Amino acid sequence: MKICRSIICLFCLVGFSCQSKPDLSEDRGNEITPAGELDAPQEMVWSKAGDEVFYLSLPPNGQYAVRARNITTKAARLIDGRNRQYAALTLSHDGSKLFYLAHDYQARDLGLFRISTDGLNLERLIGNVKTLFPPVQPSFVLSSDEIHLAYVAEASDSLFVYNLVDKSGTFLAHGSPMTFSPDGKQLLYAESREGSPSSDHFIFSPGTGAKQPISFGLDPQRQHLYLTRWDGDGIRIFYRGEDVRFYFVRDVTTGTVSKVWEQDYGVPISPHFSWSPDGSRISAWTSKCLVSRGFLDCEVTQFSLHVINANGQNARVIAYGNDNGGATAFFSDGKQIAYSFGFKMYVRSITSN
Fold first, then answer.
1. Which residue of 27, 95, 181, 244 has the fewest CB atoms within a 10 Å radius of its CB?
2. What mean pLDDT is predicted for residues 70-88?
3. CA 152/CA 191 separation, integer angstroms
4. Under a CB-based contact definition with an 8 Å cutoff, are residues 343 and 39 in contact?
C-alpha cells in the first residue's frame, strides 16, 4: 500500500493529475447557432451595426461559403456560396463591403474578391494572390480609406501595393504585408533577407513612396512578427514574436518595446488571438487537458477564452468549454465578442473595464 501511494505521489510531482473526478463544467456564453445546426466559422468579423457577424463557413458537409448570422434571430444568410476555399475575411471601413480570397483548387484559380454585404456586386479585383496563414500572416491588408491594399503575388512571392482607384499595382519588395496605420497612410511590412530565413521591417508611405526601417527588439536571426495590429490612435503597434506565449507593443514615437501579456502554459498554436477594432482589447485562447487517456493523449480538452486590455491589465476568462475554441471577433467598440466552440457560435458582452 505504501509503495502504491508513493507511485501516485510521484505521478503528481511530474505533472499528472491526481484528481479522480475532473471539473467538466462549462460557461460557453450566449449561443447564436440554432439547435440542430452545425457550422464552424474559420474567420469572423462583426458588421458595423452590430446585429450580424460575417464569417467564413465550413459546416460538416464540407461546403465552403461566406455567410452572415444575426445574433438576435440566429438566422444565417448566404453571401457567397460558390464553395471555394475562402480566407482573409476583411470588412470595409464603412461596413458596406467584404474583401476575401477565394481559391478554386480544381480550376487552379485564386483571386481577391470584393462583394457587398447584401451578397450583390461580386467583383474580382486581383488574380494570383498568394494565400498565407491568416490571421498570423495576412494574405493582404486594406487601408482604412480603401484606396490601397497590399498583397503577395502567388508566382513570385513579391509584395505589391495596389491602388483601388486607378487600378494600378506597384512592386514594393520580396516580403509580406502586415498592417496599415489607422489613417491608411503608412504600411508596415516585412522584407525578406536574401539567403536568410529572417526578415527586416519597414514602414512605407504609398502617397510619397518613402520607406523607413523600424526595429522591434527581436533576435536578429529570428526577426519574424505575427498577428500585428496598429492601434486606433496610430501610436502603438502590437505583435507576437516567434514564441506564441508572449505579446508585445512598440511605441512608434519613442521606439520603446514592452511586453503586454505572457501566458506560460497551455497556449494552443491555433486559434490565434485577435484585436478589437478600437485597439482597446485583445483576446487569446488557452487550453488544458481535463481527461487524459495516457501520455500526450487527451480525451477532454478545455479551451478558455481570455480578454486582456491593450495595456496588459485586467486579464480575465470570459468563456470556457470542453471543445476546441475557434475564430474570434470583437465588435467595433470592444464591448462584445463573437467566438466559437466546435461547430457552434457564441457571443458575450464584456462589461468590465
1. 27
2. 92
3. 12
4. yes
